[in-house]
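Complex record, two chains
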Amino acid sequence: MAKKETKKLEYFTDWKYAPAPEATDHIRLQKQYDLFINGKFVKPNSGKYFDTINPATEEKISSIAESNEKDVDTAVKAARTAYDKTWSKMPAKERAKYIYRIARLIQERARELSVIETMDGGKSIRESRDIDIPLAANHFFYYAGWADKLEYAFPNRNPKSLGVAGQVIPWNFPLLMAAWKIAPALATGNTVVLKPAETTSLTALKLAEIIQESGLPDGVVNIITGHGPVGASMVNHKDINKIAFTGSTNVGKWIQKAIAGTDKKLTLELGGKAANIIFEDAPINQAVEGIVNGIFFNQGHVCCAGSRLFVQESVADEVIRKLKDRLETLIVGDPLDKNTDIGAINSKMQLNKINEYLKIGINEGAEMYQSSCSIPKKGFFVRPTLFLNTSQSHRISQEEIFGPVLAIQTFRTVEEVIEKANNIPYGLSAGVWTDKGSRIFNMTSKLRAGVVWANTYNKFDPTSPFGGYKESGFGREGGLHGLMPYLKF
Amino acid sequence: MPYDFRNSPVIDQVGIEERVARFNTRSIKKGSKVQALKLALSMIDLTTLEGKDTEGKVKQMCYKAMHPHDALPGLPGTAAVCVYPTHVKTAKEALKGSSVKVASVSTAFPSGNSTMQIKLADTKFALDNGADEIDMVISRGEFLKGNYDFVFDEIASIKELCKKYDSRLKVIFETGEISTLDNVRRASDIAIYAGADFIKTSTGKIGVAATMPVTLVMLDAIKDYYFRTGTMVGMKPAGGISTAKSALQYLVMLHETLGNAWLDNKWFRFGASSLANDLILQLEKEARGVYFSKDYISVD
């Protein structure tokens, strides 16, 4: 059965799906967005605004306020006052009601939020509609439930809130990351200053509107926008008790240095380069789906993406042939089209970075394979890409690309694949595909990764903790564990 | 190397269900919808398999198969009619001159609990009367006992007979009875290697009929066989598919699993009795822009 296969199936030639774009006429966006401080939208001190664009069309959507150090200080003061005067004194079950109300309002405005998420960030409407927004609401629901049960979550440990949390979030899951950060902070009785990423501020600002509508006391959540330096001034602000950051490992390292010697608590959720491991006894067709979901979900802009594929040699030909075939059925294009599987790359900068890595891979001697799909002329797009015959020492197998690019290696034995999977500075996630239960448990205990998925990939749930080992960061978000970083005992 | 059916690929049910859910998020609109509705209509095996079937009933159904809805020009006829062996002759005469095929169930349909002689005689009777296609059932009892050779041999024997008449063989697993997806995959491999021209989910005679997960497992088996041998095998989900929406979801799954080559009634059929009228209703709606009463569509 090791015969070389040349047969190819054709898709989308006789039956093309007509465009099915999600309507955008119900979206209400302002021309310009201000900072959300102390329950009100206020102009930035700098008087400056920057454009936010739709990465699928490169057209401007709106202008976003650029904060400076003074704005950060005003926001932190507002959060401190809200903490001292209202939030820390409020009975926990009252806090829960506000969090619950935010969850309900997100659900009510789910359609609007998904469309904006897709317009601003480039991800497919299918994902923002079916994954990002429902999960964001679920995080608020879940943590609303914990607010008045902290004593039960940590019996005899007298959990207490910290004060003001400064939170900096990335552009890959804008609203969802805001939910991951804000929901546990509020449930544990802290107040928040949150900075969304500069390319994807809109849903965070829509969340600010929702927070206003929910009647949450002024200053409990403040949302300030802008570029890197805004985050830096938050990190350096003297009156912040806790920093929570999700983003690149380099920035994470800088933050850790910056807060050394202070009593700020810190959680970091950084990069990853996960091993997705396919054993010969795996359900192969479903494993191929898992590989696709692992690396092409959200255009590969996922810190836990299964970007390194390890296939056991005895099934490597079959898996790769099936993977190439499956690539042809992925629809790449307009993120607002309901049939799009892979949307736009988030920004020009990220597009350049991915293209740079494609060159690196070719120069390193790996064999590049791309889907034959056509990609739109305008906007930032990359074809789903496989690199075959890669080595562990290739940069494309070692470094986080954060795009729809998969580096494929083969392995022979369990020991070999464990060693290779762990031989990386990161340790956020991994995937194991096998029909054998005992092998799953063996692998999960030996893989140095915060999350290990078995016979599935990229599954998220508010009840499940998420976080990394090594250069992927520390601290856990989600689940009961996600409460701890916001508490002192 | 002979194929050992004990080593049929394992199936992860959760993974299959997720894949199906993903197909069902596809949004088929406008021209692509009309195209698919017509395609689905042309893929129907219009079926009547009841104890109370009469010549009159079969004749009426045959006319419907050739002229599903003449009020809307440009509609295809269905692929075939599917009847018991005793009604093959009637159907054959009624369909004379048309492209609609006559399919006959056989091998002691629906239970398959009879001797091989009777199954062969049953099939031969249908073929002698002019059946273009034979829908046989496998012995589920033997299959569940692990007696795969028995099942393989019975399919191969019926196939041998069909070959003499140049008729195509569909093999029904009754997936509701063999129940697990691993079993469905194994039965698919057995039938395909034994020479089935089509593999088919169900008889329509028990509670659980065709489902998308089961059909996907069977399509995957067809695909693996195609890549191994270059030979195409057809697929027929039967029972329980009664709405146009559901038919479109099946077609999306077929299209994105096996590609353009299978988008043809030579390779894909719906075993259904009431699906045709819902397809017609939707086609009329696409043509007129409004729904109208079901009283405008004949119920044969």
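Note: The first strand of chain A starts at residue 32 and ends at 33.
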